From TrEMBL:
Residues 34-101, 114-147, 302-380, 728-776 are annotated as: Disordered. One of its GO terms (cellular component) is nucleus. Its EC number is 2.7.11.1. PANTHER family: MIXED LINEAGE PROTEIN KINASE, TOUSLED-LIKE KINASE, ISOFORM G. It is found in: Nucleus. This is non-specific serine/threonine protein kinase. ATP binds at residue 478. GO terms for biological process: chromosome segregation; intracellular signal transduction. Its cofactor is Mg(2+).
Length: 776
């Protein structure tokens, strides 16, 4: 009995496993059909099993089951409907599973277990097994665990999986037509997909966690960096405050030292003394004790030179003579000494004869308290021998040469004092202007530029040495101060001119051009431009101090100037400086052996396409402006139309500057004022440049100056050709020079041949035309 029960249970377990495998491999997608009350079976088209339909199911009836001993002798009774008696089931039909017909159902013979879904319900809400009437199969039976008196029966109710692949819908009371839908996915594929989804989900969650941790770390690092940045900012601000304090202290110390030197130099070099002239007061210069001492020494040298000249004249009188002349002089002197009374008697007789009415015997002869009427003569100076004369003459010559050397030393010392006096006068004016400036208390402009000292003052601007607190560098701040009494149109014109200069200058970037860093407004009547700082004087100041410059150093300066002009002519659009002069050439190291930089683009001209014509040039709209000694003749032409200019204006300026460096004076209009130059038309008459004999200058340099100072602008060399001039090129070896000369000769010969060919073609064409006309 127990064995049969176990066999039945095992067959039911296999049937449940088969249903579970089919349900896991194929998912039915049909809606649940409505059932009658108390009916627990499904139609053949239901999705109860995806592996097989009800027709394929083996009808297991109680007659196949092993009956207990108490029921063995009971006979089967056929009911009226053709079914079995109590404890039996209706015969299997193709319409569906059998229904129990006795009062005791087969489920009463098994222990009911809580059903569990054979597959995982993911996402969609599926009905629980208790709510639907689906059979739930128990796990594999074990002999030791099942009781002998109660046999569990598998529930005939199976769950509906039709709602797994769609969102839940409200239960309708109407009946729905169910349709079986199958999928090609197997259970293994679904499990793999679920595993992959779970792993991807886990990876995504891990990635999210990792990103969150990274974000948290970055937020922490950002907070740390912000804190560090704030610390650095505070540290930088403290450093800037310390730098400002130190720079102010240094500037104050330098100001005190400068004023102390000026006070000392006032006594040594001189000072301005205010004197009253009529109803006005004038400041006149008074030299110091150094110049007075030099003047006294020069007077002493002059007096000693005059004494030497007098002694030389006396020495000439005592020069020893030859033997014959000496004998004649000695004889004449002895004869006059032997007859001393002859002259006196004759004189007395002449006097007696000429005088009438005199007392008899009275003598009117001249005498010197003696009876003899003779003249007294000084004793004759003893003559020098040849040796004595040579010694005295040599002594006088040596004294004269020593005085000449001392006079030359005094001249050098005087020139040195004059240079120091020029510096002293310049420093006195600078200190006076600095005391009068409103920026003398070290203000910070634009929260960045600390003004330290005044460098110079012009007509409407002041140039201050400043320190850039942001870039940590020295700069030059040019403060443009407008007059409060100006009219608005004049102020607008000045600001327009300054902005035009700024717009031209800010685009320039060359090592030989002063850089423009910034421009900003200070108040309603002033603004500031920030320039590159050059620690040194300009070329004009150096020429005033040293007069001339050696050719090699002057050539170096001209090379750098031409390099800057080449850059100005290669940019688009090109720029004409127009105000090139020694005052606008800065010596960065204070001497002529270093680098130079060009500044002041206030009068610059932009050669844009609208205003500039390559054939004729551009109109000079600012005639009368500029420095006349350095402008070419075409700038002084007066007519109905304005004159035409080009970059050759700067070429003329280069020639004048080079000439002034070599010879210490300007080639045209030297020692003339600008008004005199205009009145006398000095530049318009400057048709040819003249060179002095000293100092000696090479012919190449003279040729370079001539090419720059050509009177007609058509004959004058342009900037690009000037940069390729052989005088500015590096030295070439001898064979290179010979080859270059040969090339030049060949080019000249080719040009001559071309000209001859053109002439011959012209003459042949003319004669052929004449012949044709005569034949016709």
């Amino acid at each position: 009995m127990d064995g049969m029960l176990r066999a039945v249970l095992f067959s039911y377990w296999q049937l449940g496993q088969l249903h579970m495998m089919n349900a896991g491999s194929q998912i039915q997608m049909a809606p649940q059909s409505c059932l009658n009350s108390g009916q627990s079976v499904h139609s053949q088209d239901s999705n109860m099993s995806t592996g097989s339909s009800d027709k394929e199911q083996d009808c297991s009836t109680p007659e196949k089951l092993a009956r207990p001993s108490s029921e063995r002798k009971r006979k089967r009774k056929v009911a009226d409907d053709g079914g079995l008696s109590s404890g039996g089931l209706a015969p299997c039909t193709k319409g569906g599973p059998r229904l129990p017909v006795d009062t005791k159902k087969i489920n009463d013979y098994f222990v009911k277990h809580a059903g569990s879904s054979p597959i995982r319900h993911g996402g969609a809400k599926s009905p629980s097994p208790g709510q639907q009437g689906y059979p739930m199969y128990p796990p594999s039976p074990q002999a030791g665990l099942l009781p002998s008196t109660q046999v569990p029966v598998v529930s005939q109710v199976q769950p509906d999986y039709s709602t797994l692949m769609r969102p839940p819908q409200a239960q309708l009371s109407i009946s729905l037509v169910s349709k079986q839908v199958q999928t090609e996915l197997t259970c293994q594929s679904i499990q793999e997909f679920e595993t992959q989804a779970s792993s991807d989900l886990e990876i995504r969650n891990n990635k999210i966690d990792e990103l969150n941790r990274t974000a948290e770390e970055l937020r922490h690092q950002l907070a740390v960096q912000q804190k560090t940045l704030e610390q650095h900012k505070s540290h930088t601000n403290k450093c800037i405050d310390v730098v400002k304090k130190l720079l102010k202290e240094k500037s104050n110390i330098e100001k005190k030292e400068a004023r102390q030197r000026c006070m000392q130099n006032r006594l040594r070099l001189g000072q301005f003394v205010t004197q009253r002239v009529g109803a006005t007061f004038q400041e006149n210069w008074t030299d110091g004790y150094a110049f007075q001492e030099l003047s006294r020494r020069q007077e002493e040298i002059t007096a000693e030179r005059e004494e030497i000249d007098r002694q030389k004249k006396q020495l000439v009188k005592r020069r020893p003579t030859n033997s014959e002349t000496g004998r004649k002089r000695a004889g004449s002197q002895s004869g006059s000494a032997s007859n001393p009374g002859c002259v006196g008697s004759s004189v007395s007789q002449q006097g007696n004869s000429n005088m009438a009415g005199g007392p008899p015997g009275s003598s009117t002869a001249l005498h010197n308290g003696t009876d003899t009427a003779t003249f007294l003569k000084p004793d004759a100076m003893p003559g020098f021998s040849q040796q004595e004369y040579y010694e005295a003459d040599e002594i006088l010559k040596l004294r004269q040469s020593a005085l000449k050397k001392e006079d030359a030393d005094l001249q050098l010392e005087m020139e040195k004092l004059e240079r120091e006096r020029n510096l002293h006068i310049r420093e006195l004016k600078r200190i006076h202007n600095e005391d009068q400036s409103r920026f003398s208390n070290h203000p910070v402009l634009n929260e960045r530029y600390l003004l330290l000292m005044l460098l110079g003052k012009g007509g409407f601007s002041e140039v201050h040495k400043a320190f850039d607190l942001k870039e940590q560098r020295y700069v030059a701040c040019k403060v443009h101060q407008l007059n409060k009494d100006w009219k608005e149109d004049k102020k607008a014109n000045y600001i327009k001119h300054a902005l035009r200069e700024y717009n031209i200058h800010k685009a320039l970037d060359h090592p030989r051009v002063v850089k423009l860093y910034d421009v900003f407004e200070i108040d309603a009547n002033s603004f500031c431009t920030v320039l590159e700082y050059c620690d040194g004087h300009d070329l004009d100041f150096y020429l005033k101090q040293h007069k001339t410059i050696a050719e090699r150093e002057a050539r170096s300066i001209v090379m750098q100037v031409v390099s800057a002009l080449k850059y100005l002519n290669e940019i688009k659009p090109p720029v004409i400086h127009y105000d090139l002069k020694p005052g606008n050439i800065l010596l960065t190291e204070g001497n002529v052996c270093g680098e130079i930089k060009i500044t002041d683009f206030g009068l610059s001209k932009v050669m844009d396409e609208e205003n500039y014509n390559p054939d004729h040039g551009m109109d000079l709209t600012s005639q009368g402006a500029g420095t006349y000694w350095y402008l070419p003749p075409e700038c002084f032409v007066v007519g109905k139309n304005p004159p035409k200019i080009s970059s050759k204006v700067d070429v003329w300026s280069v020639g004048v500057i080079f000439y002034q460096c070599l010879y210490g004076k300007k080639p045209f209009g030297h020692n003339q004022s600008q008004a005199t130059i205009l009145e006398e038309n000095t530049i318009l008459k400057a048709t040819e440049v003249q060179f002095a004999n000293k100092p000696s200058v090479s012919n190449e340099a003279k040729g370079f100056i001539r090419s720059c100072l050509a009177y007609r602008k058509e004959d004058r060399i342009d900037v690009l050709s000037l940069s390729r001039h052989e005088y500015l090129q590096p030295p070439m070896p001898k064979h290179g020079r010979q080859s270059n000369n040969q090339q030049q000769l060949q080019q000249q010969q080719q040009q001559q041949q071309q000209q001859q060919q053109q002439q011959t073609s012209f003459t042949t064409g003319m004669f052929s035309g004449m012949n044709a006309s005569s034949s016709s």
